């Protein structure tokens, strides 16, 4: 399966809509997108993972790297996910303490950290 990416601006946030599988083969595509957004001055990102079918450790690494990148610019990276199988990965790895995880893009965009 492939990875689909699209971006849109909602308020002062840039929303990255991700679909498909984030794995060792597709994660570099997501990494490039996040790096490009930060290089272009987008420091408040929301990664919408509602369309993600699979996430592995490489994908987690890309998300953590993206978080470090935006934090270097006083930014934020919020996740949108309510799929139990994906949320379980974040709970097992302890990353629920690192990432704000929301149930909708609207909730993520309006939330205050």
TrEMBL record:
<dbReference type="Pfam" id="PF01740">
    <property type="entry name" value="STAS"/>
</dbReference>
<comment type="similarity">
    <text>Belongs to the anti-sigma-factor antagonist family.</text>
</comment>
<dbReference type="InterPro" id="IPR002645">
    <property type="entry name" value="STAS_dom"/>
</dbReference>
<protein>
    <recommendedName>
        <fullName>Anti-sigma factor antagonist</fullName>
    </recommendedName>
</protein>
<feature type="domain" description="STAS">
    <location>
        <begin position="3"/>
        <end position="112"/>
    </location>
</feature>
<dbReference type="InterPro" id="IPR036513">
    <property type="entry name" value="STAS_dom_sf"/>
</dbReference>
<dbReference type="InterPro" id="IPR003658">
    <property type="entry name" value="Anti-sigma_ant"/>
</dbReference>
